[in-house]
Amino acid sequence: MSIRGVNIHIDQLKHRYSAKSPLTFDGVSLQSPPGEVLAIIGRSGCGKSTLLHILAGLLQASGGTVRLDEEVVQKPSPHWVMMFQAPHLYPWMKVAQNVGTGLRFAGWKEARIRERVEEAIRLVDLEAHADNNVQDLSGGQQQRVALARSLVMEPELLLLDEPFSALDAFTRSALQRDVRSIAKRLGFNVVIVTHDIDEAVIMADRAVIMAGSPGRIMTELEVDLPDPRERHDPAVQAMRTRLMDAFQDAAQGKSGPKGNEAAQEAIAANEPQAAGQHG
Amino acid sequence: MSGGATMSGLDFTAAGAALKSSGRNLANFVGGLAILLAFWWLGAYLLASNPQTASFSTFGPIPTFQAFPELWANGKIQSAVMTSGYRLGLGLLIAIAIGIPVGILVGRSKRFRELSNSPFQFLRMISPLSWTPVALFVFATWNQSIIFLIAVASVWPVIYATSAGLAKVDPAWFKVARNLGATPWQMLTKIIMPAITFDVLTGIRLALGVAWVVIIPAEFLGVTTGLGYTIQDARETLSYNNLTAMVLTIGIMGYILDSLCVFLIKRYSWQRGAG
Ligand SMILES: Nc1ncnc2c1ncn2[C@@H]1O[C@H](COP(=O)(O)OP(=O)(O)OP(=O)(O)O)[C@@H](O)[C@H]1O
Ligand SMILES: [Mg+2]
Questions:
Q1: Do the strands A8-16 and A63-68 form a parallel or antiparallel pair, or are they unpaired?
Q2: Which of A2, A96, A193, B14 has its CB surrounded by the most CB atoms within 10 Å?
């Protein structure tokens, strides 16, 4: 399997859920080159999942555009696949059938499906469980199945919405390393949403910080660390501290929204109220 | 080595437990039927020992079992079972063909659910047999009317079980499927249907019970075939052992059909501890 990445262009994206509800986020613009692992960090409720659903084509934005290379994202596609916080596997299918679901939807022949599924299952180290019942797997194994179910589509962009937050620390860090190494090996783009700073440092090439209400991109940071990244490595620790500081500055409204000085004051003015809302 | 021994030891215990539980099931099955038979025999004995009711003593188990060979030889049992089975099967099939799509609509569309709620509750509470005059008016033959009555009676459990099953489905399953490129048709056949198989089959099992209850009185009227008619006929000709033999046949048939449903539920549902 080898997958080329894409240029992601997000241009002045904004969203509100209904005419009466407030803007979830506003003026979000982002670029990401092919093969980049981009982390979006932000507090609960700032619109990260909403943004990801729009990138996946599962939700229509109220304004702005998302383009992958020249293609405008408007609906789901095998080229951009999202993986959720919970595995959401289909319990009436075995592991291998779960992994092949998307290919079956696309009308592939069974023989080709089998081949590709085998490869995806090998990628996530579940060869021994291919014929198992998904209800018999651990949480970490189930999330690996969900990962294989996404990877089997050979997406150019993999969208991850806090995919490991329900797992124990040990399983989580193993999966974080695995996803990064698979992405780097195959060459597709990843956008991962998280509120775990460590996760961003271990996985991402670049981290952007979202804050405020409506949410905006406040700042960004290159995570230029060599692979493999070890948690106790001083360089990783230092990056973690930098990211944490940036996050706190953003939360307190010290750093303005990227490329939008005028809105900074508005954000700052809104901040006490927003902080109150989110406890 | 010791690991292997432990493994086989475990296996042995598991097999023993399985054997024990199936032996226990068999004992329960036989014991339960024996108790039922004892009560039946006692009832017949009491009838026979009272001079006023002695003429009904052929209700007892022994005359009943004696009636079977003749009923079988002259084909009465087979033809009654076939005819009633045909009506039941067709009525149920219609109920399923209507009940599942309507149930899915109720479960998926809030608007349809709200709109249909009161008329459905109202229609559901009408005793199935009270539709008889309407059925006779609409349909040309008694046969068709009986099939209609069965369908009317058994469509509700299918509708409600289907929509209840759909209500329990994890909405994320739809999102994941959409995300993987499912068309609406694939959503229906590959996600919704397998997700609710257990509930639909449970609904069909209930529907079967209802249909089985409705078909007998429905066949008391008009027709000259089927289990209900045969019972009516036996009563009028005062052959009570034939009557109980047919009642027994009804019981056995119902039991077999219900067991078939239970088997299908166990076979085709993914829910843990189903059935
Ligand atoms: N379906 C919806 N309808 C209306 N409002 C919604 C809906 N989903 C989310 N929201 C609102 O939009 C805002 C952003 O939600 P979102 O789930 O995108 O946040 P998030 O950053 O992913 O938070 P978390 O870190 O807790 O997952 C929240 O205020 C939320 O209440
Ligand atoms: Mg979220």
A1: antiparallel
A2: A193
CA nearest A15: which of A266, A221, A213, A256?
A: A213
Q: Which tens digit of pLDDT belongs to each residue from B4-59?
A: 444 444 455 666 676 777 888 888 889 998 999 899 888 888 888 888 877 777 77
Name the token pair of B148: 């209609």
Nearest atom in ligand 1 to the alpha carbon of residue A42 is 21
Residues with CB under 6 A from ligand 1: A 17, 21, 24, 42, 44-50, 195
B176 Cβ contact partners less than 8 Å away, ≥ 6 residues apart:
A84, A88
Tell me, in angstroms, the distance from the centre of ligand 1 to residue A42's CA.
12
List residues bridging with A10 in a β-sheet.
A30, A66
The answer for residues whose C-beta is within 8 angstroms of residue B163's C-beta and 6 or more apart is B103, B104, B106, B107, B113
Query: 0.95 cut: is pTM over it?
Result: no
Q: Which atom of ligand 1 is nearest to the CA of A213?
A: 29
Q: Is B180 within 8 Å of A90 when comparing Cβ atoms?
A: no
User: Which amino acid type is present at position B76?
Assistant: K
- Please give the C-alpha separations between residue B197 and each of B162, B201, B205, B270, in angstroms, as whole numbers: 9, 6, 12, 9
Strand ordering across the sheet containing A216-222: A80-83, A157-161, A189-194, A37-42, A206-211, A216-222
Is A8-79+155-278 in CATH node 3.90.1150.10?
A: no
A29: left (phi over 0), alpha (psi -120 to 50) or beta: beta
Task: Give alpha helix (H) positions in chain B.
Answer: 2-49, 61-73, 76-108, 110-124, 132-138, 142-168, 171-179, 184-186, 193-219, 227-236, 240-268
